[in-house]
Amino acid sequence: MWQDNSYAPSSSQDSYYSQHQQPSNLQFYAPSPSDGSFYPGSRPSLDGSMGPQGSISNGGVAYGGNIQPVGGWWTAFGTGGFEGEPPLLEELGINFSHIRAKSMTVLNPLSHIDEHIMDDADLAGPILFVFCFAIFLLFSGKPNFGYSYGVGLFGSISIYLLLNLMSEKGIDAYRVTSVLGYCLLPMVGIGAVSVMMTLDDIFGYLLALISIIWCTYSASGIFVAVLRMSDQRLLVAYPVGLLYGCFALLSVFSGK
Amino acid sequence: MAHVPLRHPVPTHPVSLPDPPSTPSSPDGYQRFSSSPGPAPPQQHPQPQMYSSQHVPAYPMTSPFQHNQHNAHPPPQPHHQQQSFVPQPSFGAWGVNDATAQFGMQLGTSAVAAGQEYVQKNFGGFIPLTSVKAHFNVSNSYVINKIKLVLFPWMHKSWKRRVLRTEQGHVEYQSPRDDINSPDLYIPLMAFVTYVLISGFHSGIHARFHPRILGESASSALGVIIVDFLSIYVGCYFCSVQTSGQVLDILAYSGYKFVGVIFTILSSYLYFSGALYYVIFFYFFFANALFLLRSLRSLVLPDPALSSSPTANASAYYRSRRITFLFIEAMCQIVYMFFLVRV
């Protein structure tokens, strides 16, 4: 029944912590034989984002989705928490080992791209990277938080539309944003470099160009692997390269 | 789109979404809420379709991304197609009179459906999605050859677009992947964005970069495209050229001038003297003009084999006018390109 197997906090915590030993398994919860019944009807590719909402139902109330808790209102202010409540990071869908694994895949341009790497498309890593990028730019004298958010949002939507128009197999927007955000990691490195030295000379241009090529190479590799497109890698790489070029413009030239 | 007589609307089952988990304790379906509205949670059911079928014609599913539209239905109704009777929503817990609430929901649903039908009738056929998708069906070799064609149009011999006849006897053009003469939307779009970025880079090199320059140059380039498109469209109207279904082609042809503009700006970084820079600019302008003359010829002066008989006499009368219009259009490009080159 729904309530019977929705509280398995010990087992889910074990599976959460055991991700270190299984770096190749990127499902949010380790797939168990009862995985089908754990989230009946949920898409396996979105397990990571649907997991926390599925375990919110609490307290033995009959209607699924009702979050009336047992215990009084004072338990909200204590540290005990509600009965059967999952840990906070798990509830938010932030899985640091996943983030680290995906970042390592992006940073290593020679690694083989598994086509299921982006099945749990979480946005926590990308948001973290864009925020770090904007903070590094702030330290180097270019406070462009609004512009980096705008470029990121507009670019993600454009790439989503373009990829859906160009390929037979569609892709959803969360996955596009997740891939683009993870592949921004070399650009964050450029932002860190720009704190210490100015990038407005020929060496800076070269460094920015190398990081654009690095980001574009990994992002287009993931897109081509996920969408199974044939001989269109350059056509996918060019718009993605333009987007990262926009980020590079923000980080190289100061807006004085 | 053919006129559909009034009938009971039958929404299609969304195939991209699996059935949501059924809550065993609520027998009439599932709930997707994260919090219950009150102590007596109402049996929230979607508006039954049969109540709205009296004065609303067939519900037009016009959204291109079908699964998104089904997500937007509040609340979604995949479970209820198989049931013949759906109980009334009881709004007693919300303090609203039952009959009034039902009437209000009915009115709202019919208003939304009428609005969608109006949009569909007036703007639905303007830019069909399948045509947009066909314009993005490009390959690596097509892109390279097309850019070569835009920059050196005097090297190309045959400019006719290849047609294929479908089983119904319709005549339609082949996609860009198979036909080098077919216009696509990928190159113009990429050239537009590259132009915006290059203008940002140009201002950065001259130490006057600000992120708003990206937005400003994008807006001015978009303005140039709109003016060019309108001039071609209005000119086609005055010369009585049929432009139905060719909106995307005209947009594509307007976008090819950005390729020449980008190469002109790039050549300015190579420290050529002033005279050589203008020579290069005029070369790219003439190349673009020749390309447009040859490509728009198939648009403005239709092939008599393809057109139907009533327009054959009209095309003979308008022929000289159309040729003049085409020439003026190609010469106007210098104004646009000169405006764009001044980043």
TrEMBL record, chain A:
It is a multi-pass membrane protein. The chain crosses the membrane at residues 123-141, 147-167, 179-199, 205-227, 234-253. Keywords: Membrane, Transmembrane, Transmembrane helix. GO terms for biological process: endoplasmic reticulum to Golgi vesicle-mediated transport; vesicle fusion with Golgi apparatus. It comes from the Eukaryota. Its main location: Golgi. The keyword Plastid does not apply. Residues 1-31 are annotated as: Disordered. Residues 106-249 form the Yip1 domain. It is found in: Golgi apparatus membrane; Membrane. Residues 1-24 have a biased composition (Low complexity). One of its GO terms (cellular component) is trans-Golgi network. Belongs to the YIP1 family. This is Protein YIP. It comes from Dendrothele bispora (strain CBS 962.96).
From TrEMBL, chain B:
The keyword Transmembrane helix applies. InterPro entries: Yif1_fam (IPR005578). Residues 79-90 have a biased composition (Low complexity). One of its GO terms (cellular component) is endoplasmic reticulum-Golgi intermediate compartment. It holds the Pfam family YIF1. It is found in: Endoplasmic reticulum membrane; Golgi apparatus membrane. It is a multi-pass membrane protein. Keywords: Endoplasmic reticulum, Golgi apparatus, Membrane, Protein transport, Transmembrane, Transmembrane helix, Transport. Its main location: endoplasmic reticulum. Residues 1-91 are annotated as: Disordered. The chain crosses the membrane at residues 185-205, 217-238, 250-269, 275-293, 323-341. GO terms for biological process: endoplasmic reticulum to Golgi vesicle-mediated transport; protein transport. Belongs to the YIF1 family. Has a role in transport between endoplasmic reticulum and Golgi. This is Protein YIF1. It comes from Dendrothele bispora (strain CBS 962.96).
